[in-house]
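Appendix B. Extra example for self-study. Work through it before the problem class; the solution is given directly after the inputs so you can check yourself.
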Amino acid sequence: MGALIEIPARGGTAVHLDRGRSIKVINTHGTQVVDTWAFNRDEPAEFLSMEHLRVAIGGIFPKPGDALVTNRRRPIVTLIEDTSPGIHDTLLAACDAHRYRLLGCPEGHANCTDNLHAALGRIGFAAPETPSPLNLWMNIPVGADGTVDYLPPVARPGDYVVLRAEIDAVIAFSACPQDMVPINGEACIPVEAHFTFI
Amino acid sequence: MGALIEIPARGGTAVHLDRGRSIKVINTHGTQVVDTWAFNRDEPAEFLSMEHLRVAIGGIFPKPGDALVTNRRRPIVTLIEDTSPGIHDTLLAACDAHRYRLLGCPEGHANCTDNLHAALGRIGFAAPETPSPLNLWMNIPVGADGTVDYLPPVARPGDYVVLRAEIDAVIAFSACPQDMVPINGEACIPVEAHFTFI
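Solution. Structure tokens for the complete assembly:
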């Protein structure tokens, strides 16, 4: 296993992941949502797509063994292992400047959309759009009436997810800076997470 | 009320809808799913976005009175009226050539993604991507375990939805050509739908 690499609190990072290699994403404190994206390294307009993933897996919760697909319906990463209870979100857009403005925050609140594009930029990769992310550990139950709720993660400190690349990919993470609704724990304090290549 | 305009079975159409104008979409036979998109006429990269809509309305089922938002989180259309039981889908991607290939169909099956871009092209509008559509009358229940099912619409013949434009918009419809799973009725026979300006 490689060194632990930090996803800084409220920040993002992006890395290359060659086909066949795996990455372990760790919920270091158990309370943090990690927005996750995957792009085809050779064709940035192909990326992990939640609306295609839900068709492919027949549901809203990816499980170990599931191939997670792109907007061209082919696997880009496989969810190999998940030590957490498996509660992740595939429904909600990444937070952005508009979201925090609507929540009444002053301008300049950190957000996952800006984190994504800044992180990609640091490795010289440009995404043509902002795909809806796989929000690891984000706990958004859907009621029988279709309403959604925003609850803290049910993960434990150190819980992790392993993703294996099925094509040469760029993977990006954002430790979600949401501190207005309790998706990052009741205390609403975003913290760092980690990952490592395995 | 204007003339009834057909959305041909397995086909698509796109129209301009000025701010403040409304359009009535009619499930003529009650069994047909109508994939629906809305774009900012002046900025095609801004469009009705399901992942942002779910945040804005706090759920997966839009209801009369809901402002349906773009990927910049501002209203583009308001759902004014819905005579059907309100079961629509916001979760699943538009069908495309990849989908039918994976279902085992020969090449060339009509699909909503191609219908969208062909319909937009006929009015001289180009969309930079294929947003996930508002699938009117598509009945995709989400189980308590997060699995989704594909069921026939619960609409009645003549049920309709009224959408009012909140900005100058382009609206596109596709009468979904899905005939491999029973989303367009148990008989799996896609049929035409209609719309009219009101």
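Self-check: Chain A has a mean pLDDT of 97. If your reasoning did not lead you there, revisit section 3.
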